[in-house]
Amino acid sequence: MQTWQKILPLVLMMMALLATAAAASDWCGENGVIRFSFAEGPELVEVFDAGDPVNGVTTVDVYAWLADVDLVAQDGEKFLRVGGFELQLTIEGAEGFILSQEFPSQALNVGRKIGSIAAGMIPGQRLTDGQTHLVKWQVMFQGRPENVRFGLDAAGTMSCGTVEGCPEAAPQALYVGVDSSGQLGSMFGAGYVPAWLNPTGEPDRTAVHAKQSYQEAGVFVEQVKKGVSCIGMSALLTTTVPQMKLVIDSLKEAGLRDQCKIWVGGAPVTQEFADEIGADFYAVDAAHCIDQLNSIYGK
Predict the structure, then answer these.
(1) Could you tell me if 166 and 256 lie in one domain?
(2) How far is residue 100's CA from residue 281's CA, in Å, rounded to a whole number?
(3) Mean pLDDT, the chain, whole residue set
(4) Which of 9, 64, 190, 253 gives a 20 to 30 Å CA spacing to 175?
(5) Are residues 191 and 264 in the same domain?
(6) Same structural domain, 193 and 231
């Protein structure tokens, strides 16, 4: 199969999202943030001093990463790949000229202009440790700019207006899963953490979030309604640990808490915390969790 034939279904899906996706897509709430980096690789450099201009101009590479994603499951399939995404880059503090825009894998972008993205990706960008690289820009400035802020514009997520529940949340970016996992119609939002070029003081790096998380959108609640009886949650960072309690609380509010067993684990999680939030089990690792499942269900 030729490359364009592989990409076309995703492009059509992205164009459908832009037009009439309300019937085809489900709003799943915010899960993760877009982080910028001035260096290649997963070690993010989010504040950067570019030094003196060269030939009167300053040129920087800016990478956008989807990060801090919890690998939730939809219909039993973990969300492991990003099949398409939308965002619109903003540059404040100086006039920047975007010279190029590159994707890390086969992609077709139907965004209206450079810096504005509505792209389908083949075979989809895999999430590793809850993050994946989405796009790279090369940006040029006259002279040496100072206090330049890179961020996102929520108005650039055109698909949001066609999906119930999304416009009220006003996400700064959108992404969907891949068709092979049946997740192309699962739409998540992402906030962002601003990055700074040549700041003259301590820059404001306060994260900008949507008004609704994936827990509040009821992703876990919907799965339990469909018959899921076991839920496992793992946190890599202390900043995501509190979300576990929100999931349990949302199940209680929906009257579904007694219909499922909940496991929690991860580096910052303890048995004491599991007891505190009302989880059924604490597992030190995935193998321990499997052992517990086998003992309960006799396998």
Answers:
(1) no
(2) 49
(3) 84
(4) 253
(5) no
(6) no
Q: Match 């943030």 to its residue by tokens.
A: 33
Q: Which CATH number does the domain housing residue 77 bear?
A: 2.60.40.680
Identify any residues that bridge with 132 across adjacent strands, giving them in sequence order.
66
Same domain, 169 and 271: no
Residue 258 vs residues 203, 218, 247, 248: alpha-carbon distances, Å: 47, 16, 13, 11
Can you tell me the distance from the alpha carbon of 24 to that of 78, in angstroms, rounded to the nearest whole number?
A: 20
Residues 169 and 263 in one domain: no
CATH of the domain at 276: 3.40.50.280
Q: Residue 254 burial (CB < 10 Å; 0-12/13-18/19+)?
A: middle
Q: Which letter does DSSP use for residue 54 in this model?
A: B
Of residues 58 and 19, which shows the higher confidence score?
Answer: 58
pLDDT for 233 equals 80
pLDDT at 16: 42
Instruction: State the DSSP string of 173-225.
Output: EEEE--GGGT-TTEEEEEEEE-EEES-SS------B--S-BTTTTTHHHHHHH
Half-sphere exposure of 149 (CA within 13 A, CB side): 15
3-state secondary structure of 159: helix
For the stretch 168-190, pLDDT in tens is 899 999 998 877 666 767 889 99
Tell me the two tokens of residue 284: 């030190």
- The CB density around residue 179, as the number of other CB atoms within 10 Å, is 18
